[in-house]
Amino acid sequence: MDFKGLGAIFKGRVKPADEQRRWDHCRGCTFLTEKNTCSKCGCFMRAKVKFKHSFCPIGIWSKEL
Question: For residue range 21-39, what is the model confidence (pLDDT) as tens digits?
Fold first, then answer.
């Protein structure tokens, strides 16, 4: 497994307010499952909303948020 890029991923976190805004959108989404995964992309959304490189698969929030 290549761990070189892993540090870059974790350094790219969004501000807490942006994380909360993203999560608020996800919580109201019909594609969010009971286990907080997205039925469109399969990601665990509580983690995905934290990172700058992430985006919503249906375009509700993007990398800029």
Answer: 999 999 999 999 999 999 9
Q: How far is CA 57 from the centre of its chain?
A: 10
Which two three-digit tokens encode residue 60? Answer: 């509700």
DSSP state of 14: P
* Full-model pTM: 0.79
Q: How far apart are CA 50 and CA 12, in angstroms?
A: 8
Distances (CA, A) of 32 to 4, 37, 52: 31, 6, 20
Tell me how far apart the alpha carbons of residues 7 and 9 are, in angstroms, rounded to a whole number. Answer: 5
DSSP helix/strand/coil, 11: helix
